[in-house]
Amino acid sequence: MRRVYRPETLFVVGSAPTLERSVRSRFAVSIGFMSRGALSGPMSHADESAFDRYRADVTRPLARLFREYGTSRARWLTIGLLANLVAQAASLFPPVVLGTAINALFQSGDGAYTLPFVPAAWVPATPQGQFWFSVALIAGSFVVTGVFTWVYGISANLFAHEVMHAVRTDSFTKLMRLDMTFFDDKQTGEVMAILNNDAGNLEMFLDNALMNSLRLLIMVGGIAFVLFALNWQLALVTLVAVPVIVAFTWWFMRVVAPRYRARQSAVAGFNTRIENGIGGIELVKTTNSEGYERKRVRDASRNLFETTMSVLRLSYFYRPGMELLAGLSFTATFLVGGYWLFTGTAPGPLTGTLEVGTFVTFILMTQRFVAPLAEVSNIVDQFQNARASAERVFGLSDIPVNIESDEDAVVLEDPEGVVSYDGVSFAYRDVFGEVASEPILRDVSFDAEPGETVAVVGETGAGKSTLLKLLLRLYEPTEGTVRVDGYDVEDLTLSSLRDAVGYVSQDTHLFDGTIAENVRYGRFEADDETVRRAARAAEAHGFITDLPNGYETRVGERGVKLSGGQRQRVSLARAVLRDPPVLVLDEATSAVDTETERAIQRSLDRLSEDRTTLVVAHRLSTVVDADEILVLDDGDVIEQGSHDELVDGGGAYAALWRAQTGEETDWGGDDD
Ligand SMILES: Nc1ncnc2c1ncn2[C@@H]1O[C@H](COP(=O)(O)OP(=O)(O)OP(=O)(O)O)[C@@H](O)[C@H]1O
């Protein structure tokens, strides 16, 4: 039986992003300018399988992200963009004011006081007035930069986080709707990665890269504009480094990319090792394999160390390289401008004059464009990560849901619980709806009326659990019809169908929480007395009241603090509490001792008096009273009848019965 929930995976799902985040943030701190997205851990590799088909069809994912999620929140984005624009533009103003003040006031005091974007009428006439005006402008620019940076930060964050909130909840809603085949096919970890990692990448992009690219544009464009306006010849000298800086960044990104990929798989390998070691801790301990696991984790960690260092070595080279190029630009500006001022004549092919104030503005501005340019690698990186993540998010949202209530589906009201299987055949399908297995069931037919119990027996893998799941429409038959109260289950609303059926699966699942909460699951409004009644009916009340905190005892992750039999009884109580007309029990008593089983049996007999009950059992003693027993063999019903009829028939059932009551049989090994 393949399980939907994989506890080991769940563990890592919970911890990996945290682990990865801490690795990532430390790493990001150490190399300063690397983006978080670039270091996305194992997930980028793991989800290469089932989403591929839909993911590949997603076109322009970031545009779609804006279309589907951004437009309704565009006001925050617009405010953020405008505020960013104003803040960055204002931050360019002080060097320009300083240059003008030097030219007009500090040198000889006879230069004209003119500033871009400032009407001449505003400029005071006296030098003293112009000085105070300059002070006010510089201070004002810093205040404007501060205030608008604050506005920009808040609006950009609101936009990014509101979008992410919507993406996360929509993705989860979609996940809840998806067919079981999706979950059968998909690792829980991969699915969780969409909600954790991909949402994180998108958030980083919306929050950071988008605004930084604007900042970059304004900074480099604004600086170039100001410098060219002041002195285009010196501007050429200063900005000749920009194409070199861009080329250097491009080279860096190309060289570092494979090293990033190697590091990503090292993170994946490391997480997998931890997952294995801790997920299988019981096996590790009982086989004395701690040393073996330690070595595997040490090797994986060493690999992570080496790949990280290989990225860092290159990164340590990049940042100083950028500084050096900026330094060269600064030196060239200082050399040419300084010489120009010093000698009073334009050097080489240059012509015209240069004023001290303009020179100071140049020097200050040259310092400013390195930081935004150094962001280019981050921005491109975050952009690429966000693109891939948006593809995955939309890949998920595009997966079709096959099992859903039709628009004209019938609501099953006051169900009686008449169940009938009519010529049902079944094969598992893959997530794309294509048949992916040999037939698991062939032409199964039976009827069960309220008050009747139908038992399904057969060797392991014969298709018993699958048969029951078709009733809840977790899967759909490839042929034939499953009916409840005469309705094809495919014509009923899923919620009314599933409300009518209480299901205790083979893999009982408890959520972390109290016993009472677990019993109440699915009928959340049930009062304490109802919970107790259900527990009594499931023979669980006794052991629950023996626990230190009774119904308030926390059961631990997946119910690990309870025994297998106790978990089964809590699940049974949960099914009983819902008081459904149909009870489906898939080996609901396999993990309890004979005495408890008898007690449960007695209570089940009471419970099933006026209900329809379908049971899968390995222990035939639990099904002797069933109205009808189906013997499944590799998907075929090979015998069908009451216990007495089947024993008298002398076939497979009779042989199994003999084995379980002490005589020989082929099925002996299957008995629990
Ligand atoms: N989700 C699934 N996807 C594909 N094949 C599956 C899936 N679940 C079960 N199977 C296959 O279907 C067959 C029937 O499985 P099923 O769980 O119905 O058997 P079973 O009779 O209940 O077995 P057991 O007594 O061991 O629980 C098996 O061969 C199994 O490998």
TrEMBL record:
PROSITE patterns: ABC_TM1F, ABC_TRANSPORTER_1, ABC_TRANSPORTER_2. Pfam families: ABC_membrane (PF00664), ABC_tran (PF00005). The chain crosses the membrane at residues 74-93, 131-154, 214-230, 236-253, 324-342. GO terms for cellular component: plasma membrane. It is found in: Cell membrane. GO terms for molecular function: ABC-type transporter activity; ATP binding; ATP hydrolysis activity. Residues 426-659 form the ABC transporter domain. It is a multi-pass membrane protein. Keywords: ATP-binding, Cell membrane, Membrane, Nucleotide-binding, Transmembrane, Transmembrane helix, Transport. This is ABC transporter. It comes from Halogeometricum pallidum JCM 14848.
